[in-house]
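Re: that backbone. Tokens:
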């Protein structure tokens, strides 16, 4: 989908980090954008900041973990902005810790946002995009944690591996049955965003969590020194234009994926690859 001006994008988790940077880029491309986020105040602030471009900007407060919220987002986007051409399932949260110590709430919250959020996005938008008969593109934001396995990140890693598998399947199914709609999966390494404070948006009924490990502090430093989110937005837009499935923002990190694949193919027990 080379020509973006005048087309419509829907971006979840659009009030901060990678989602906001991508929304800014889509506005600069002349697209209409529907911004979805659970954080109503940050969303209102972002919508106000992005007004004034060639396209229209719509903000829809959405909890992507809830099917009915994502369905309402799709309905409003189609009603108010017309056909949607680009959907970016980006909203995500992170927890870390020993896999047997995580609370059920840790699992439910993280699976709800990172995996069910993407499932709801695919179910709400893809049938509408196919029925519309126009070119389209679905971008799901996973992580390098979707292609590697490291200690103390079990819950997050499970969700991101699932998002990679879901998106790869989506790519195959679209190629067979609806080739005008494409799919991409984004696998970033460290990006300078607010991901390490994602519990700020954690629902109170899922608040119970385990104690933070020392990985949490290490992750804060790695994220603080990470890639600017605008670089991730640039890579996503390039992939949409090229119809490219894999979006790697840190190609050097793929060494960890090769390490895992080599061990797997030779039947060796897993060892930890140098952390990205
Ligand atoms: N930052 C990194 O180093 C990094 C690395 C790999 C992958 N990612 C992925 O990038 C995506 C974006 O994260 P980010 O780094 O920009 O983090 P961020 O915390 O800066 O932004 C995430 C946005 O999602 C929103 N959000 C949280 N829960 C939500 C919900 N239930 N419904 C709707 N919106 C919700 C937040 O309010 C926030 O605006 C995530 O999927 C994350 O897993 C980030």
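Recovered sequence:
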């Amino acid at each position: 989908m080379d020509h973006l001006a005048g087309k419509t994008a829907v971006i979840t988790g659009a009030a901060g980090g990678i989602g906001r940077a991508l929304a800014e880029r889509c506005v600069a491309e002349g697209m209409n954008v529907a911004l979805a986020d659970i954080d109503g105040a940050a969303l209102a602030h972002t919508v106000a900041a992005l007004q004034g471009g060639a396209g229209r900007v719509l903000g829809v407060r959405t909890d992507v973990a809830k099917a009915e919220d994502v369905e309402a987002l799709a309905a409003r986007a189609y009603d108010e902005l017309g056909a949607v051409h680009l959907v970016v399932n980006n909203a995500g949260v992170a927890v870390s810790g020993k896999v047997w110590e995580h609370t059920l709430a840790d699992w439910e919250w993280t699976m709800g946002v990172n995996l069910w959020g993407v499932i709801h996005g695919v179910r709400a938008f893809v049938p509408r995009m196919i029925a519309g008969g126009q070119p389209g593109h679905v971008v799901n934001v996973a992580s390098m944690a979707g292609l590697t396995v490291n200690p103390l990140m079990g819950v997050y890693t499970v969700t991101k591996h699932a998002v990679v598998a879901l998106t790869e399947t989506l790519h195959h199914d679209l190629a067979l049955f609806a080739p005008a709609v494409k799919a991409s999966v984004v696998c970033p390494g460290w990006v300078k965003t607010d991901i390490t404070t994602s519990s700020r948006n954690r629902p109170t009924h899922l608040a119970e969590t385990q104690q933070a490990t020392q990985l949490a502090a290490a992750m804060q430093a790695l994220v603080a020194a990470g890639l600017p989110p605008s670089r991730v937005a640039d890579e996503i837009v390039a992939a949409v234009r090229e119809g490219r499935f894999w979006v790697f923002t840190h190609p050097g990190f793929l060494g960890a994926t090769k390490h895992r694949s080599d061990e797997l193919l030779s039947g060796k027990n897993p060892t930890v690859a140098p952390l990205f």
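The longest helix spans residues 104-132. The chain has one domain: 8-265.
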